[in-house]
């Protein structure tokens, strides 16, 4: 029964009766889209599982596995005092969290007693909603399931369907798009075997909207812009010089080794097209370039030419221009490197704090010096050498590869040979992981290097503020010069009419020209400051994003360790595509 209220104001002759029907405010349905359990790559998908209005999992990770959060004051990741609400807040920041307007929570019917007119209004209640994110190339199909979260009364005779979007074809059995009926709005009810096919290529994100039988929006899928960017990849073997004294046989042995290394790498990267199935999640197609004809490109490292192998400083200086530093040779030519003592990291790490950056820089530098100075794609260096570290517990740890997470300077990654099947030159996940670093992605877990960048982050924040201040300052100067020009032009008009003092007229015109030059100069400063600002903001994002760390091995993320590598997060995919578009296209 509706409640009747009568409002009267005798002094102005006003009388109005209002009938209000209040429905159950807690009665609503939300639909969440989850991936099919047999995901094998080929497209990108990221999602949250919700239970009792709380995030139960993001992708396949429990919120409780967030072990560290970024502290803005110290510019470091900390592990103390992390609340459940803070974890949820940080997770939501990863996604395009939106509000769904749930119509029909409260329906108001207003009846004007004098005019006897009736007006019905739906009160809109907003509900936090985290859409599933999908990056689906044209022609590809994703298999998903839809799960219901019902608050209040369950509606076994209700249904949910999809609004038609011309960019996609959605099917379930024989039904398509808005003819699909996902019935029984029951809490926890799941409908599987739903297929979404991308029919077109689109350069701006699209939404697939789910609605109930009353036309109320109850869910959303964020479909990422699915245009493809290409990343050129060259596989370059790095071999240790043969000790054969016969020059021809020496060269033959080195070439044979290089050919074998390249074939091994190709088998790993092209097996089941796994490299591209991984990067397709970000809308990236890796194009592995064929070997150069008639001469294969490869790099030979000769340990006997290291600077620590010669007798005089003069010889060392001479060799420095043509060969790597002895510490770089030490790490590549592990046959010449002693195993580290228990409790130490390997010799090279002890000597060089930023080994991964240095060795890749040197290899890229050498490649460009020998073969192609203008190449802009990714260079994957592969070697039959392995690298061993010893942990504090005395355990040996093999490295599968090394690379740098700075996206602005480095093109190279180095893949080692190992005696483990899940990392190194024979494992596709290692290539994806190391190329991910090269394109700006950090590890999702906290380790001994996590806070090494705190000083750099602090510098970046100072620089960012300086760039912002510079932009404001020079925009103000432009405004002042623009005002001055208007004044000069007004004075010119007055002087022209009066036909007096031509010298003053010429001075005014010179002032305008000078002010215009100043404006052009200031605009150039602003342009450069904005460019530097964007780069610094991006570097900050590389160092700190996503502003939390997850316990090692608790994800199926490509950038994790000790795991089955399957997914990239939404934010990682966006960063990868941005890097390829900006620096490597």
Overview of this structure, please?
With 585 residues, the chain is α+β, with helices and mostly antiparallel strands. The protein has three domains: 164 residues, no CATH class; 212 residues, 3-Layer(aba) Sandwich (Collagenase (Catalytic Domain)); 91 residues, Helix Hairpins. 33% of the residues lie in helices and 29% in strands. The chain is built from eleven helices and 28 strands. The strands form seven sheets. A six-stranded mixed β-sheet has the order 4-11-19-18-13-16, with no helix packed on it. Helix 9 runs antiparallel to helix 10. The radius of gyration is 32 Å and the shape is globular.
Could you provide a short overview of the structure?
The chain is of the alpha+beta class. The chain has helices at 84-94, 247-270, 274-279, 313-320, 326-332, 347-351, 355-370, 428-438, 454-498, 502-544, 570-584; strands at 3-9, 14-21, 28-35, 44-46, 48-51, 54-58, 66-71, 76-78, 98-111, 118-129, 132-135, 141-151, 155-162, 168-172, 175-176, 182-185, 190-198, 206-212, 217-223, 229-240, 284-288, 299-301, 378-383, 387-390, 396-399, 401-402, 412-415, 548-550. 33% of the residues lie in helices and 29% in strands.
| Whole-number mean pLDDT | 77
Ranges where pLDDT stays below 50 over 5 or more residues in a row are 1-25, 103-116, 307-354
CATH classification class of the largest domain: Alpha Beta
The percent range for helix content is 25-40%
Question: What's the total number of strands?
Answer: 28
Please give the largest β-sheet.
6 strands, mixed
CATH architecture of the largest domain: 3-Layer(aba) Sandwich
* CATH topology heading of the largest domain: Collagenase (Catalytic Domain)
Distance between the termini: 66 Å
- The Rg value, from CA coordinates, equals 32 Å
Helical/strand content category: alpha+beta
Total separate domains: 3
Proportion of beta-strand residues: 25-35%
Strand neighbour order, sheet with most strands: 4-11-19-18-13-16
So what's the overall shape? globular
Helix count? 11
